[in-house]
Amino acid sequence: MKRGGKRENSGRKKLGNITLKTIVTNETLIQLNKYFPEDCQSKQLRNILAYAIKQKEVNVKTPTVLDMFCGCGGLSKGFIDAGYKVLAGIDIEISALKTFELNHDGAKGLNIDLFREDAIEQIIDNIDNQKVDVLVGGPPCQGFSLAGKRRENDDRNKLYRSMVNLAQKLKPKAIIIENVPSLATLYNGVAKDEIIKDFTALGYNMAEPQVLYGPDYGIPQIRKRIFFVGLLNSEQKYEYPKPILDKENYISCEEAIGDLPSLENSIGISPCDYPVKPLTSYQQLMRKNSKEIFNHLGTKHTPQTKHLISLVPEGKNYKALPDDDELAKEFKSKKRYNESLTRYHSKKPSRTIDTGHRTHFHYKENRIPSVRENARFQSFPDDFIVLGNKQQQYRQVGNAVPPLMGYHLGKKLKEYLK
Predict the structure, then answer these.
(1) Which of 40, 70, 141, 272 is catalytic?
(2) pTM of the full predicted structure?
């Protein structure tokens, strides 16, 4: 044995072009040939390795999102479009979770009862302890203490507290809470202060909550939502995205749904073909990844209902019904909800989409909007398919945060996650 100095063939060598040999099963070969149909195996292997490395880089760099109280996932769908990876959504509505899983690129839909003591552990186990960069959610108002008095034994506190407790465990870089604007004044503002105080105690620098208006962000719907955004251990406060449209350029009902098939004299079929090419840039955006129309089915109205709708002028409600029509006179004589029998205006955004579907009507046709039309008003793209029965579909769409709102929030948030 030669003593002293460097031994032959020892030490770290530079890697050059090398030949790899391995055994591959027939089943694997079938899959490889399906997804990488190159003309030779060496080229196939090179492409596979390049793809694997690229995917690894994407997974490392792509921020992750966990969506609590997710419903069908409007907010997190917007984050996907902004370049995030959604790990899972948590909700108790089974039909909404099925919709969520279908439309969220492999994310899990978790049916977890947040009233359970082990709910937080269940969530963490189900995401396989993956790192969560952003925690989003819209806890129901019942999750805040009655009259601002913290009642630790009140089960309803667990709905909101579950989000706080999960943030404490996972320590995401950012949290976003969405709710109705009235949350700012709920219990004389105590609910708003409670959110800020609880997350500040966990180390989040909380921006002043802000109400965002849908039409300002390209959403063809008069919809307002309040948002709370906090950044963990940050000296910066999140600045909300600036509006992209002014009032003169808001997207109208007709610009949003004018390319969809008429359902005036037909219930329609689902899926169905587009009858015309996109007529507006918004329609083009909604149809970007879709070749067919889903969830566009009409509703059978009674002759009396259709007659009443036909009497309402564009953009008006039941108060505009004529006094010389007996059916209209009888309808007006009873106490009515202010939004009753409201017909949309073709040149304005729609009214706020709610969980019901028998209050608002098409701007031209004498019928309620279809689920797909409501989804368009909410900015769900046409390749977002809603599952469940018709009532569940309407409820899922109505309860959702518009994806375009999530997109703009997520896009702005990326500036703080670098």
Answers:
(1) 141
(2) 0.83
